[in-house]
User: Fold these one by one.
Assistant:
Number 1:
Amino acid sequence: MEKDFWLERWEREETGFHQGEINPYLRQYWEELHQPEGGEVFVPLCGKSLDMLWIRSQGYSVFGVELSSIAVQAFFEESGYIPQQTAVEKFACCEADRIRILCGDFFDLEPEDLTKVHTVYDRASMVALPPEMRKRYVQHLVNILPAATQIFLITFDYPQAEMQGPPFAVSVGEVEALYSEYADIRLLAHGDALADNPRFAARGVSRLHENIFLLTLKAVEDRGVTG
């Protein structure tokens, strides 16, 4: 999926993927992460997610990356912030109240950008990518994250043939296949979510599950050993 697809979605205000409230699973399972006090949480492909405000309200720093400058500007404006703006390598950086968002390509991030990160919050990144990009996404993510980083991952699973993504269907099996080499995987919840997501039913989806994962990255020397 090309960059222009997402840039055009924001330009046309076709942002049905944006949630107008805090994700309930974030509230419910946050304590499972054992995030160090004052730690930094990375939110890839963050858009203008309100979840970043909730994470900040819990006392943590937030570091996001987002392709669309429209989304970044909207986040700070709608949150009532006037961000400090600087240029950082291949990114434009906006920062206010310990919320820092780099505007640019996720795949341009380097390990040096994430040295303070302890946790990743992925509600809308993996499911935004088609199958051929998800492996590249996971490989880049684990390559730039510090060892022992935790990843709080939310995915949708539905019959892919019934709806054209995004959001795309990502099964439990696919998450295990993509991450098992790099991380210990714990499935926190698996539930029927069709009734709570009428836009899926309106697009012809007959079955929808949400899967909530807690992944913990292995030490580099332990990666590639499974079982």
Number 2:
Amino acid sequence: MNVKAISGIPENLTLDHARDWALARVSKKRADHVAGVHKVGRELAEMAELDSESRFMVELACLLHDACKEYKDTQLVALAEEHGMHLTELEKANGHLLHGPVGAFVARQDLGLTNETVLRAISEHTLGNCPMSDISKIVFLADCLDETRPRDYTKPIWQGLLGKGEKKKRSGDDKRKPAAEDRPQVNIDNAMLVALDSSLAYVIETRRAIHPRTVDVRNYFLGIVRASEK
């Protein structure tokens, strides 16, 4: 991919450069997660039949999404406020929720990345947003579907995406490229709803704070799915 063709992405910001920059900032365990998210994001972008530019943006956002994940909560709060975010008391007390937006700020500052679609995908990968681009949705789902996640968490999301056939028809499971009519039909919005339901259930079960945006985003996708079923 010639990144010169994509507005807001510096020519030198190749996927290799993004990978090296991001992985230098995280632990080995986190680096493995980033590699897994990148792999799934690339697969989902192909399954969703995104064009080549959009696929590049998915891969770039996947590689950069957790660059600030291991910052301390206090550092995330300070950086968010430094970049003009107006934080709620919940966000100040749970700074880890800010690693997406802060990651977008840092990528803009350090890498010269100004493509708003990619920056939003980085920013929105934890809490989501209303609405979200297909690129943001795929990065969000890739983060949920990394193979290091528990099987009982990822399986319902794959089923929401592909139907009851789950992962059997995934293009990445067969080295032969399937014909267009044989490729699995993906329901990204339904998968988002399943992922958000699962995330909320986990937060409740572990007695963690729920960010109000997560509820709003879940209800937003519930509305989309219900409308599509009528």
Number 3:
Amino acid sequence: MKLYSWNVNGIRAVWNKGLFQKFIEDHDPDILCLQETKAMPHQSPVDLPQYEEYWNSAEKPGYAGTAIFTKAKPKEIINGFVDEVQKSFDFVDKFGDPTKEGRILSARFEDFWVVTVYTPNSKRTLERLHLRHDVWDAAFLGHIKELEKTAPVLFCGDFNAAHQEIDLARPKDNLKNAGFTAEERKGFDDILQAGYVDTFRSRHPGEEGAYTWWTAWGGARQRNIGWRIDYWLASPKLDSKIKKAEIHADVMGSDHCPVSIELV
């Protein structure tokens, strides 16, 4: 079984370029998790009859959003956080309520949960770092732990954080910048300390230049001046069933590239 995650930076744009169709033809995912869809389901031009489609779209038009396309019908779908988590945190800040931005979608299958997440950015001036560090990261880990009570979890998406220096091209220049602050890195540490596995890094511990996002400026992608901020993570019970974890930097259409895992 092949599971892919891709921040498409607008599903309509990548479809209209013909690049989404090419990706599906070349890779044929069994489950595809999307972030930053920037569309309501009725606005999507995607026509792929082999997939069931599930959407969690932002209330704000053309913004954020997640989706799961799957060949197997899930047993259950949860839009947003589980109720226990939703009630435990105050998510609203001056920028709004991230729980109304379609940032989390969870699907229960026979043997596991699959979760796609589009983590809020801390903003260039770190104005949203408090929400990110003190609220969102804790809430998201709580969400995964709640799901874990019923089945192991595979979770993926754009975490808007590079975990270690090896995960971005210029770590020293970005120590206090959004995506590489100590607080954001600790949020990722907390996930790993809870026992979940960074599937790519556990299988490619020393691989440098393995990035999933590049700025549009200065030919960054061509020069591979990037960040690894898109991940697949797994419950320990599932990690042994993952035979591959890959980054597909050759897939074009977005400022992010897809990442994947393959289950035996």
